[in-house]
Specification:
Chain lengths: 113, 113
């Protein structure tokens, strides 16, 4: 069965600081990987996704993530955060056909102005 | 045109009542999910329907029952509501077997008083 862990429950940063949110998954086969963002009071929106190819993927709003297969990791990064990035961030895994779409527990990011 | 729509957006009801939440997707996807997001923001899969067939049923109380009249709809019916059922419920659709992301509805905030 697939599982996803996220390293940090709550991250607090000042504006312009760099961000890295950790994500590790457990699944033996080929996986599709995702980062979703949930702004306060809103639904989940896709930030970026990885299926194959270049392990460094770029998403919306200046976010990027790197897939490191040997570490079963898919960490999210942003060089300079803004107050508007304050949200809950979820890493998700889908192990392909017949597998479920499983989310990590989420990391709350608070950016101080 | 909203891809995945849920109604109602907010639902306040008394303990013991029976309620339903509706979900419709116009993406032609063959798999739909219901997730429960608790106060700690953790997203837990409740049900998944693939072509009207229940393919997973996580350890949720049998007071919760998914109903799918057709491929585009997956409604969630809850009997004898309890205080602990208060949460945000998200519907999602996903084209199983394809390299793409899950699409989410805007969520239904259920408050049981």
């Amino acid at each position: 069965a697939q599982s996803v862990s996220q390293h940090n429950h709550h991250v607090i940063l000042s504006e312009a600081a760099s961000l890295e949110l950790g994500c590790n998954y457990s699944y033996g086969g080929t996986v599709n990987l995702f980062w979703y963002v949930q702004y306060p009071g809103q639904h989940l929106q896709l930030l970026l996704k990885y299926f194959s190819g270049d392990p460094l993927v770029k998403g919306i709003k200046g976010f990027e993530a790197e897939f490191i297969k040997s570490k079963f990791s898919f960490n999210l990064r942003k060089p300079s955060v803004q107050w508007s990035d304050t949200a809950e961030y979820f890493c998700a895994v889908n192990g392909g056909y017949g597998q479920n779409f499983v989310f990590g527990p989420g990391t709350r990011l608070s950016v101080l102005p | 045109d909203t891809a995945v729509s849920q109604t109602p957006k907010y639902l306040v009801t008394q303990m013991g009542n029976d309620k339903s939440i509706k979900c419709e997707q116009n993406l032609g996807h063959d798999t739909m999910y219901w997730y429960k997001q608790d106060s700690k923001k953790f997203l837990k899969i409740m049900f998944s329907y693939n072509n009207k067939e229940l393919i997973i049923n996580e350890t949720v109380p049998n007071r919760f029952s998914p109903k799918s009249p057709d491929k585009a709809h997956l409604n969630l019916h809850i009997n004898s509501l309890e205080l602990g059922d208060s949460a945000v419920y998200f519907c999602a659709s996903f084209p199983r077997g394809s390299n793409t992301e899950a699409f989410f509805g805007q969520g239904t905030r259920l408050t049981v008083v």
